[in-house]
Amino acid sequence: MIVENGMVYMMQNLSSTDFPVTDGSVNSGFSDFAVVCYDANSGAIQWSKYLGSGGSETAPDMKLDNGKLYIVGVSDSLVAPFFPVTDGSTNSGSNDFVVAKLDAGTGNIDFATYIGGSSSETKPILTVDNDNVYIYGLSQSNDYPTTFGPAWPGFNSQVITCLNGTTGVIQWSQYFGANNIYPGTFGSAILHVSGNQLCLGTAAGGGSAYPITDGSVDGGLWQPAISCFDLTTGALNWSSYFAGGLSFTLGFHWIADGNNIYYSGNTVGANTVTDGSFFNGTPGATIDTYLGSINLTAYSLDWARIVGGTFNEGVPRSIHLDNGKIYTAVSSASPDHPVTDGSTLSGGQDFVLMRLDEATGVTEWSTYIGGENLENQVQVYAANDKVYLYGVSQSTTYPTTNGSTNTGASDYVVSVYDASNGVLTESTYIGGSGTESLAEIFYPERIFADNSDIYFAGVSQSNDYPTTNASIFGGANDWVFTKLDLCPEGYVTPNDSIFPDTLTVCAFGLASEFIVPPVFIPGDSLPLIYRNGSPETQPQIQAEYQWQVADFDTGPWTDLPGAVQSFYLPSVGGIDQYFRRISKTSACCGDSIIATSDIGAMLIGPDAAPVVNAGGIFSMCAGSSVQIGGI
């Protein structure tokens, strides 16, 4: 999922023949790519199309650059209809790469081409820079199109190819050693342009003939490796392993920023670290998280560390950078995963969300969040001084702030944190009566946030997932695309009156409640929700409240700790006091004041509340009685 310029772009391969398209295209084979552009504000489809052949299209990746959508994947059709290429190229083997450039505004194809040899190409990724398209993947073909470099090195050869971004014509292409890892299956990979270098980050090793320039060695299992090439010629500048132990590649995820590439993966034992951290589980039997930063200018490891507890830390699903900080999340079964806020494991597996300093890798805060059962499939995104966690929960007690509940076997959960301290500010379930899943789709992100809007995508098996356009469940697994508004508008303030406006009480006595009408967004002013075509009104949204006190009706006013209900019961002292209620938006929305109530006066009358003297201290046992005073 890519969100940019008011549009949302999604892509995945699917077998359905009735996917809604706008251009009359049809599913030509077993599995075609479906590419969709939505209006980010309304969710309406702007354009939608199939891209495919008489066989199967798989393993998609996409990038948006300068108003163009670039797509890469794998196509296996050897008979018509073929992938809709623009250059007359054909599928040369059992699986070839297919690359397409679409106009992001219309979905029209600018160019499309096959690239491959007489055997099989798999697991491509791409990046775009300065009107060039760079592709990385694996090839079993001994005749993959190359322009220079060594001959085919054998099974699982890596290939790197540069295309002209206007024409799709190959500028340079080469084999680059072998790698026993399938990027995107056992571990993902990244292509990143840093200065005049194209840098590849991948999981490598396991006995691979991976090309190395600095003498670093394969530690025995798969581990992070970085290789950088000249952008113009493709010549290898340098290549190195960056771990020395049992680095287990399931779930390696990468992100780049300027001259550094960062990874979040797993290790099943001791590994290269820079901070003295160590493996906390049982070597070879449990999994810890392995994080690091690689400097692309100095060709060095800036930092690396292991984080985890005595049991398994699940596959890291994402890593995100924002304002010099790294955010990553895992699903942890460890009751002793290091956290900074005293939170504890709530069920069999909770999310753990962490913030690290980008320069040093030091943990600045970390926290558990979860319910009594299992939390898994987690993504993280950071922007606007907030951190957004998106995952799947099988629990009924996952912490929420809006009273929502789990409605099926597993629901999506979206939780928002203050980025500075890791404090949870908003959290909700969303789902239907079946199973919701993130699935390995919607590259490169599955959640995105822009100001107060949160976008997320996934796959639902529920026939009653909440929609706003009355669309209904179409099959075994449907795409769902959802937008949440953290800061909706339209609060209704019936009036600001306070009742009673004056309380006259005895000094140190008892008072009655001050009551102010609630401030809220009516449910019928929010978009109507449909579940399996049946409409329902969303619950009204209450403002947040803060009661204040002053010794004079002109102030100064002081917040009353914990006084956050729509009403307030004051404690009576010996002096007159004045009270008012502030209605405001949530902390996520800036604590903006919506309304301020009238002032209620609590005036002390001439009498003091009676003081009862029981005549001493009386002791009693449970089930017995004591008479105090009287005859």
List low-confidence stretches.
182-187
Using the alpha-carbon principal axes, give the shape.
elongated
* Helix content range: under 10%
- Strand-residue fraction? over 45%
If you compute it from the alpha carbons, what radius of gyration comes out, rounded to the nearest whole angstrom? 30 Å
Separate helix tally = 0
Helix vs. strand class: mainly beta
**Mean pLDDT across all residues, rounded?**
89
In this structure, how is the largest beta sheet organized? 6 strands, mixed
N- to C-terminal distance: 82 Å
User: Could you tell me the number of beta strands?
Assistant: 44
Molecular structure report:
The chain is an all-beta fold and about 625 residues long. Helices cover about 0% and strands about 45% of the residues. The protein is built from no helices and 44 strands. The strands form 12 sheets. Strands 33, 39, 40, 42, 43 and 44 form a 6-stranded mixed β-sheet that branches. A 4-stranded antiparallel β-sheet has the order 1-2-3-4, with no helix packed on it. The protein has a 4-stranded antiparallel β-sheet with strand order 5-6-7-8, with no helix packed on it. β5 (about 55-65) and β6 (about 70-75) form a beta hairpin. The radius of gyration is 30 Å and the shape is elongated. The chain starts with a strand and ends in a 23-residue tail after the last strand.
